[in-house]
Amino acid sequence: MLAGVFEKTGSVALQEKEMPTLKSDLDVKIKVLAASICGTDVHILSDPPGHPATTGIIQGHEYMGEVVEIGKNVKSVNIGDRVIVDPTTTCGSCYFCEIGKPNMCEHSSALGIFLDGGWTSYSVVPSKNVFKISKEVAPEIAVLAEPLSCVIHGSERVNVQPGDSVVIVGGGSNGAVVYTGIKSCGCSKNHLC
Ligand SMILES: [Zn+2]
Ligand SMILES: [Zn+2]
């Protein structure tokens, strides 16, 4: 299969890669239906790099697809399910994972940054990193679930209330998603510049 590979500093290349296989009974294989380009991808590909990444990996950490194979212990999804991907992998057994803060996992990694990701046709992902989504949500919309989840978390932390004034610093794609998220919290007068 063809894949967008982080070849070397400043360079992504289309390369032929082997079809990935399940590495554990809890893995799933998905057929990628959509993958987006994040600002982090641009930083990874800058020279000098603005974000670390592993040379040789398939880039793309914002992606979604259809489950085509599941490990024998996978219960959360089935073949044929449409899923979104959480690209942050966690160990599940360190102190932070055990207290319910996997975002601080001592052994976390990231699909599409340090491990193979979604700029390709098929991807193997731990089943705990995929979440079922309705087939009525178009792939090009569903692929924004990862940045949207960051926005929802940030909006909850800021605790915006109706009538509050909010400044969003940075008007890129994530800024636009933040704008949508903040608006849904009740900010009614909006100026996007
Ligand atoms: Zn990203
Ligand atoms: Zn952990």
TrEMBL record:
Pfam families on file: ADH_N
Domain Alcohol dehydrogenase-like N-terminal: 27-134
Assigned keywords, A-Z: Metal-binding, Oxidoreductase, Zinc
Family annotation (InterPro entries): ADH-like_N (IPR013154), ADH_Zn_CS (IPR002328), GroES-like_sf (IPR011032), Zn_alcohol_dh (IPR050129)
Protein's UniProt keywords contain Metal-binding: yes
UniProt protein name: Alcohol dehydrogenase catalytic domain-containing protein
Organism in which the protein naturally occurs: Ectobacillus funiculus
